[in-house]
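Design job #97: recover the sequence.
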């Protein structure tokens, strides 16, 4: 659902530019494919922060195209996306979230701050206030190569 596909383009300088069609604001760079992939998660989380700043719904990921690389987001990041999108569906602001959860402003802000690490338990409690629950699946890294279906 939020496994974003990125693509690489040769840059005029040595290296690769990183793009994501689902997150057009994403802009990053790596010296080679390996460093570009390692930069991609940070670039995605930074881009998600832009969506929060602009009070926009975070889009679901579309199917990857041939030659792309899929970035699997951490469970905490996916939970923050779900929380943010639930807030947007109800036209809520961060202050509304704080009132709903009975938490201080700083604590509520961190729940939708993609550049801050939150405890999964706090996110689960926040999602519960929206009648949502987090569901986690565990798969081997090589599941897709072995022909197992990909869960979302």
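Job complete. Output follows.
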């Amino acid at each position: 659902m939020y496994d974003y596909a990125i693509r690489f383009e040769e840059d005029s300088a040595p290296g690769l530019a990183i793009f994501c069609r689902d997150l057009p604001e994403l802009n990053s760079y790596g010296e080679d494919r390996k460093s570009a992939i390692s930069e991609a998660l940070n670039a995605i989380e930074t881009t998600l922060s832009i969506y929060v700043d602009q009070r926009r719904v975070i889009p679901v990921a579309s199917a990857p195209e041939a030659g792309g690389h899929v970035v699997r987001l951490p469970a905490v990041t996916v939970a923050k996306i779900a929380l943010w999108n639930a807030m947007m569906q109800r036209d809520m602001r961060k202050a509304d979230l704080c009132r709903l959860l009975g938490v201080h402003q700083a604590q509520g802000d961190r729940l939708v701050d993609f550049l801050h690490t939150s405890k999964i338990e706090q996110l689960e409690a926040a999602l519960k206030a929206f009648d949502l629950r987090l569901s986690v699946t565990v798969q081997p890294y090589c599941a897709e190569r072995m022909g197992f279906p990909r869960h979302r």
